[in-house]
Structure formats: C-alpha cells, structure tokens
Design a protein that fits this description.
Strand content: 15-25%
Helix content: 55-70%
Structural class: alpha+beta
Number of helices: 26
Number of strands: 21
Oligomer: single chain
C-alpha cells in the first residue's frame, strides 16, 4: 500500500496529468453511453408502443387501408369458432396539455384475451384489476400505477387531451383507477372499455382491429370465414422497430466508438509521460527490493482506479447528455416516422458495463506495452538514462500494411456485407493514423532541406523549430494520430452528409413534377389519412384540373422483411419523375417496379418473380424495372393504382393558383402543398436528422484538440532543460514560448494536410461501400470543400492556442 501511495503522489505535483487521463476516459465513455442510450431508447420505446397493442397476439384481421371493421365481424367469428382467443380493439393517439403522447386503447376489460399479459406476468393467473362498472363513466380510463405516478395523475382527476387529428374536439378523461403493470410495457397507454372508446373517438359500431392468438388450424379456420378484402395478417411488431432510424443510428454509433478511440489516445499519451517522469522513482523502488512484477501489479491497480473514476463519471455524463439530446433525436425520428412516443429514456445495464469495459480495458492496453518495456530495464539504466520514446517504425508499417490489405479484401469481397464495410472504414482510419509519423517525418525533412539550402537561409528560430519538431516527433505522435482521426472523421462524415443531401436534393427536383400535392389529415401518429369517394369525385370534377395521379403507400412483407407497397396512377408526367436505372415500365397486371434499395437488399434482378404479402392478401409479382429512391431504406415496390383508399394526390394544372383556391373550399381540412414547399420541408427534415451528428463531430474534435494541447504540454515540460539552455544562449522566455507556439501551429497544419486525403478516402468508403451495403442506395459524390477549408484553418489555430497554453505552463 505504501508503494501505491508513493506512486499516486506524482499526481499531486502534476494534477493536469490526472485530469488529462480522466478527461479522455470521461469524454469517450460519455459519448459511448449517450449514443447507446439514445439508440436503445428510440428502438425500445417504438417497439413498446407496438407490442403493448398486440400483447401475445400473433394474428390480426387487416382491412383495406383507411377503413374500419364492422364490430359484427367479431361477434360472427367468436360465435362460429368456440374457444377463440381474440379481442376487439380501437385505438387513437392523444396529447396531454404538456405535449406528451399517449395511446388510448379501447378493449374488452373483462376478457383481455391476447392482451392478458398487460395485467399479469406471462404464465400467471390474471390478477383481475378493478375495472368495476361502478367506476365507469363516459370518459373513464385506467393507467398502470407506475405510469400514473410518472404523470402525477391522481384517481378521480380529470385531464384534457387533444387528438392528433386536428379536426376532432379535445377529450376530457377521468382517471378511474390504476393497476399493477404486467409482463408488457405500459408506458403512455390509457386503457378504457371499448364502448367508451367508440363514443370518445366517434367510431360507434366499428373497430380498428381484431387480434388473435391462434395455432395453424385455427388460423386456417378464421381465414375461411373472412371474405375479400379482409385478410388475416401475421403480427411482427419488431419489424418497424428493427429498422427505426437506421441511417441516424449507424452514424451515431460509429461516432461514439470513434470518440472512445480518440479518448484512449489521450490516456495513452498521458500514461507515456507518466512513465517517463517516474523512471527515477521506479528505479529507486527496484533498488529497495520491489520486484518488477509487483510494481506492474501496482501500476495496473493505479490505472484501474483512474479508469474506474473516469468511466464512472463518463457514464453519468453520458446519461445526462442522452437526456439533453433525446428531444432532438425524437424530433428527427418523428419527422421520418411520424410522432411516435420515443421520448422516454431507457437505460440497459449492459450500456454502462460496455462503456466501463471499453474504458478500463482500453486504458490497460494503452499502458501495458510501456510498463513492460520500462520494467525490463536494469535499475541503474532506468535511473540514469534519459527517456527516449521508442519509434516502433517497423511494427507500425507492418500493421498499417496489414490493415490496408484488410481494406482491399473487404472492398472486393461484397459477401462481407455491412460488417465488412465498417471494418474497411475502421481499418483505413487506423492504417493512416499509423502511417502519420512517417508522413510527418518525410514532410519535415523536405521542409528542413529547403530551409537549410535556401539562399538566404530561413530564420534561425524557424529552422530550430523544424529540427526540434522532428526530434520530438515520437513524443507527439500519439496525440497527432488522435487529431488526424478526428479531422479525417469530420471531413469524411461531412462529405458523406453533403453528398447525401445533394443527391436527395437532385432526386427531389426530379421527383416533384406536379403543381400541387394534396393529402388528408393524418388519422394518428405514423398513420396516413385518406380521401373518401365523394371528396375525391368533387376534386376530379374541378375544371382547373388537367391531370391527376392517385397514390397510396402501405406496408407489405416479403417473408419476415417489411417493405413499402406503393400504388400510383402512372400518367406520363409521373413516368418522367421516375427514370429507370434498369428495365422498363410495367405492361402487365402482375409487373411492378422495384426501388434501388429493394433491389440491393433482396438481390432482386429484372424479371424475377416474388411472393409479397400485401394489405389485400398474398400476391405473385414480377420486377420489370428498377428506379432510384431515397424515401425508404426498407425498399419499395411500385405498381399502377388498382383499388383502395387514396392517401395523396398529385395535381397538374395550367392554373395552379385558381385550383388551389377551389381545393381550399372543397377540402378545407386537407394538406395542400406546392412542390417547392415539399422540397424545402424535405431538406429541412434531412438537416434536422443530422443535427446530432454535427454536434458529436464537434465533441470529438474537442477531445482531439485537448489531446494535442496535453501533448504539447508534455513536450514543453520534457524540454524544460532545453529551454534553459536556449535562454542561457540569449533566447528570452517570450521567444521560447513563440518557438513552442510555432511548433504547435506547424504540427496542426501538417496534420490537417495529411488528414485531407484520409478524410476523402473515408468519404469514398462511406458513399461507395457503406451506404449501398447498409441502405441499398447510391449517392453522388460531393467534394464539399468547405469541410477541408475549415480543417486547414481550424487545426493550426487551435493547435497554436493549445501550444500557447502549454508554453505558459512549461516556460
């Protein structure tokens, strides 16, 4: 214990060393925890919202989109099939006075059927919550006790809720009672009797769905009793959640791991300096009888204590950061998927364990090589010889060459899939980071040669700065690698996002050909509205209307994979908006067009026949053409409009203003938008989606610049004797500080220059490899020179500022 205390005494003399180590671990683990919590919360909340409506059900009756079921169908099925495990259901989305989303679920309270798990753990008897008829009024609802506590809603209290459908009046609901939650999540779920729900929502005599828990024979019996267009569809509530925000989630996860890597570079840098300062102390302990292995165990214990504190603080900071960013992520995903209730923060115990494991394991791996080399030296050599960082040139070159070979294999072998693409990006960044010291050494040698052989020669201070920078390059290499990683990642991701935005903008300009687009109000979060037949007929009869294209978009399945099933009137102007990448337009009833993501994800080719479970039943279709699309990473199948509800209209007119006025009279509640407005709104959603990405890029750059500041501070303290010698030769303290600032600015500029090709190489990998394998679409490469210019400007400025802070401490 005395030896450990003597080792820890170093941080009393150099507290900034401890701060640097803690800072790297804290910021890195904080970003890992924050991103994991955000991704998990979004997916878990979305899945919970789906699963708590389905319970143990594995089938539901699906009517054509936009229609309701007659409740007489439920009575017919239950009477015809004895022992049928089924439940009728109505549902609507509401918002309370504070803007929180809640689901109003109407069901049979005394026979919950497949929803019994809402009130009891699986396999246990139902505890019979108190849904007494004496407590029921025309606006009575029940809540899980935990949810009532979270909302602060007391039994007997009446609150006002606004439906998402703006055409409906607000609903005053009274909390009639609470119950203990069962095996399924009960957040944001209001339970009421189905009769009350029908009255509240204006669905008298109708149902939104009928849920079943069936075996194969029962499913066949139910199908035999159904007639077109009704269909018994399997339930897979995890499908939507599994693909929720894939592009955003992938970007955030990659950034969090990159932040942890940069943070571990800081730890490595701090431990390297600690080891150099401790040489005399370790030599003295060895002379007093301490064995190298005992010192190694104590050093490992010391680092584990530091790592435990750093990662512990980082986990707490990550949870706070996730809470702060959750609103932004919710808005981004709501823009993409509708206002689903994803604002609740969920923390799995595996998230802090993962961050702690990465932090402590990475810190040990960063320090062990240096300790091993240090303790293998004789005590006298350890005490008397000055510390000289090992160059490890051959090891770095071999590892970098191996990583580049891995990149090539992942690029030419598509079977590696998304994992191979991500490995390719990581291997590229790490290989280029390992090559950085050699690249800097070559550049500095070239500049020094010019400086010394130029007539007249460069100023003495500049030549001295070049020579000192080359000599101490091994001390600053680790921090410069971290800086290069951060700059390259910022450039690569920035170029990818810019390329994505440019591609989407060009695609929107190509796709939005109509003069006006009309859609009815949404029926709920994530649910589309539809035009009734009379309203559609009145619109079609307008004299200002030249042409019209109807459209509906619904979910279908190929096996267990969800896709979008799009029906549209393929009139000539619409055909111009869908240029074919391959194939031709459908000419037969069973032919469809496939989007580029669909073709890539399902490896579909022209002429291929597929079985698709559509909202109107199973169908066999044949792919006649492939078109570019960025609206869905699930994939789309497009076919001529057949039958069913019309969810939107594309209108063409020589008098769009007059047509717009007539439409506002005929359909006052409809959303009427011109193509330029949709273009602006879509780009606004795109920009909002990547706001969190931009914030995290700035945080990673901040970590990297902390690293270069600490490296320059280490360099300044290590060169204290050199500066004393220079001062004895006539250099003033101010001139020595300027020398260190010049070195810092030069290193920042050279690192940024070498990071440019690395960043653009990363952008190429993200655009040409990662995006096609992850989402199925191809992008147009956009150089985005502003990102490169910003790096070239900010890197030397911030490095010079870091050097100035270090110079104030060291000189």
């Amino acid at each position: 214990m005395l030896i450990l205390l003597s080792l820890l005494r170093l941080y009393r003399r150099h507290p900034w060393l401890l701060l640097m180590s803690l800072c790297g671990l804290l910021l890195g683990s904080a970003l890992v925890v924050a991103i994991d919590v955000l991704n998990q919360s979004a997916r878990s909340n979305f899945l919970a919202a789906r699963s708590q409506l389905a319970g143990e059900a594995n089938y539901r009756v699906s009517s054509p989109p936009g229609t309701l079921l007659d409740e007489a169908l439920y009575v017919k099925l239950v009477r015809s099939l004895s022992g049928l495990d089924a439940i009728p259901q109505t549902r609507d989305w509401l918002k309370d006075e504070q803007g929180r989303s809640l689901q109003l679920l109407g069901m049979d309270l005394f026979n919950p059927g497949p929803l019994r798990a809402l009130f009891s753990p699986q396999g246990e008897a139902q505890p019979q919550p108190d849904f007494s008829l004496n407590h029921q009024g025309e606006n009575s609802v029940w809540l899980a006790s935990t949810e009532a506590s979270r909302l602060g809603w007391q039994v007997g209290e009446t609150r006002r809720f606004d439906p998402f459908d703006e055409g409906k009046p607000p609903l005053p609901l009274t909390l009639a009672g609470t119950f203990a939650p069962g095996a399924l999540p009960m957040e944001q779920l209001l339970i009421t009797d189905i009769g009350i729900a029908q009255q509240l929502t204006g669905k008298g005599g109708h149902l939104d769905a009928i849920l079943f828990k069936l075996d194969a024979s029962q499913a066949a019996a139910v199908r035999a009793l159904l007639s077109d267009p009704l269909w018994l569809a399997p339930i897979s509530p995890a499908l939507d959640a599994s693909q929720l925000g894939n592009a955003l989630g992938l970007n955030l996860s990659a950034l969090s791991l990159l932040a942890m890597a940069v943070g571990l570079f800081l730890v490595f840098n701090a431990m390297s300096f600690v080891q150099s300062v401790r040489r005399p102390q370790l030599a003295q302990l060895l002379m007093l009888g301490a064995t190298p292995y005992r010192l190694l165990r104590l050093l490992a214990l010391e680092l584990l204590l530091i790592a435990l504190v750093g990662t512990g603080l980082g986990i707490g900071l990550g949870i706070l950061l996730a809470d702060a960013l959750m609103g932004q992520v919710s808005r981004s995903l709501a823009s993409l998927y509708g206002p689903n209730p994803i604002e609740l923060l969920r923390l799995s115990p595996w998230v802090p364990l993962k961050a702690a494991g990465i932090g402590m394991g990475g810190a040990l791996l960063a320090a062990l090589p240096g300790w091993w080399q240090l303790l293998r030296q004789p005590a006298l050599t350890l005490r008397d010889s000055p510390p000289q960082p090992a160059r490890h040139t051959r090891w770095r070159r071999t590892t970098a060459s191996g990583l580049l070979l891995l990149c090539g294999l992942c690029a030419v072998w598509p079977a590696t899939g998304l994992l191979g693409a991500l490995l390719m990006a990581a291997a590229w960044l790490l290989a280029m980071a390992l090559w950085l010291p050699e690249g800097l050494r070559w550049l500095l040698a070239l500049i020094s040669h010019r400086a010394n052989h130029r007539s007249p020669p460069w100023p003495l201070a500049l030549r001295l700065a070049l020579a000192e920078t080359r000599y101490h390059l091994n001390r600053t290499a680790i921090a410069l690698m971290a800086l290069q990683l951060a700059i390259a990642a910022a450039i690569g991701i920035g170029v990818m996002v810019s390329s994505f935005r440019t591609s989407v903008e060009l695609w929107l300009g190509q796709r939005l050909v109509a003069d006006l687009y009309v859609s009815p109000l949404a029926r709920g979060p994530g649910e589309r509205g539809w035009f009734d037949a009379d309203e559609l007929a009145r619109i079609q009869a307008l004299p200002e209307l030249a042409q019209l294209s109807r459209r509906s978009t619904n979910q279908a399945h190929i096996g267990s994979q969800a896709i979008e099933w799009v029906e549209m009137d393929l009139i000539p102007p619409i055909r111009q908006a869908y240029p074919q990448l391959a194939g031709s337009w459908p000419t037969k009833a069973h032919q469809v067009l496939a989007s580029e993501p669909f073709a890539n994800h399902f490896a579909a080719s022209l002429g291929e026949r597929l079985r698709v479970d559509t909202p109107s039943g199973p169908r066999m279709v044949q792919i006649s053409g492939i078109y570019r699309d960025y609206s869905s990473d699930k994939g789309q199948l497009l076919l001529p409009f057949e039958q069913g509800q019309v969810q939107s209209l594309a209108l063409f007119s020589a008098q769009p203003d007059a047509l717009s006025q007539q439409l506002r009279i005929l359909a006052p509640g409809a959303n009427l938008v011109a193509a330029p407005a949709i273009h602006r709104a879509a780009l606004k959603v795109f920009d909002q989606t990547f706001v969190v990405t931009e914030l995290l890029k700035l945080l990673i750059l901040g970590i990297a610049f902390i690293g270069i500041a600490s490296a320059l501070m280490v360099l300044g303290l290590a060169r204290a004797r050199e500066f004393h010698t220079l001062q004895s030769l006539g250099f003033t303290a101010a001139r020595c500080r300027r020398l260190l600032i010049l070195q810092g600015a030069g290193l920042g500029l050279l690192t940024a220059l070498l990071a440019l090709p690395v960043g653009y190489g990363l952008a190429w990998i993200l655009i040409e490899v990662v995006n096609p394998r992850a989402f199925g679409w191809t992008l147009r490469f956009e150089p985005a020179p502003l990102h490169a210019a910003t790096a070239l400007l900010m890197a030397p400025l911030t490095s010079a500022l870091a050097a100035w802070l270090a110079a104030r401490k060291a000189i």
